[in-house]
Amino acid sequence: MPLICLASPKGGVGKTTLAANVADALRRRGRRVLSIDFDPQNTLRLHYGVALADGGGFVAGLPMRRDWRQLARPTAAGVALLPHGAIDLRGALGLAAALDRDPELLAAPMREILADPGLLVVADTAPGASQALSLLAPMAAMVVCVLLADATSAALLPEIDSGRFLGTGTLGALLDSRVRVVLNQVDPYSRLSRSAAETVARYLGPRLLGAVCRDEAVAEALASQRMLLDLAPHSRAAEDLREVAGSIEAALPPLPEAVPAAAGPLAWAAR
Ligand SMILES: Nc1ncnc2c1ncn2[C@@H]1O[C@H](COP(=O)(O)OP(=O)(O)OP(=O)(O)O)[C@@H](O)[C@H]1O
Ligand SMILES: [Mg+2]
């Protein structure tokens, strides 16, 4: 049932990479996991080996209120995947207007998905504030905000404090307590990276969930359409990722033991 949203006020920080690999790490911890892509860039699927030309996803069926449980797909990683689906500019504008008029188009299928008590849902989102994020954040058990160990990310800490990127006005502030931060691409051999990471860690205290080092194995895993823990289980980044997944799990309310769903596309048993 718990929803974990990967988000960030900043683009290109590793949200999608961590969404895919955290989902895999949680699956390896015995959870039944569904990974959903809420970013129109539609790139989460690439981590799971979905063909480039395959533009299928939930977005095309949104106006028809299709059941998302039927749209999820099995992946070689053992995580169920619901891609965003390909969308052009006209489609994106139409979708934004439709969601503005009727947020239930997205909220209702999400509630159905989250009603499955043994399912852990990991959602990737677009950079910055988005309609999807402001709808999802109130449903989320945790928003994992990804930052880099650099000056821009340090400058964005007040934005995270205010929760503004999660929603407007009071909503952002209300959701602030669910935000945890992961620092990504930390370079332990760079003075600047180390110093930025230390500054962020001091500022955030226990809200910092963990850090993942910069490691070429992460990009290699995407290039070979495999999960990091599969391709390079002994890499430094893999070690960091396992720790982050453990911290996420520890911070969540206790989950029922992984019980496979009775039938249907979400019926993957934890391995
Ligand atoms: N720990 C890491 N070490 C090395 N490379 C990394 C690491 N994390 C992510 N990357 C690389 O950084 C790039 C950006 O990652 P990703 O696409 O996941 O970012 P994003 O935050 O989802 O971007 P966007 O804001 O566009 O959605 C990718 O090339 C990815 O392979
Ligand atoms: Mg992304």
From TrEMBL:
InterPro entries noted in UniProt: Cellulose_synthase_operon_BcsQ, DNA_Partitioning_ATPase, P-loop_NTPase
Recorded superkingdom: Bacteria
Stored Gene3D superfamilies: P-loop containing nucleotide triphosphate hydrolases
UniProt xrefs under SUPFAM superfamilies: P-loop containing nucleoside triphosphate hydrolases
Pfam families reported for this sequence: CBP_BcsQ
PANTHER family documented for this protein: P-LOOP CONTAINING NUCLEOSIDE TRIPHOSPHATE HYDROLASE, PARA FAMILY PROTEIN CT_582
Protein name per the record: Cellulose synthase operon protein YhjQ/BcsQ
Organism per entry: Paeniroseomonas aquatica
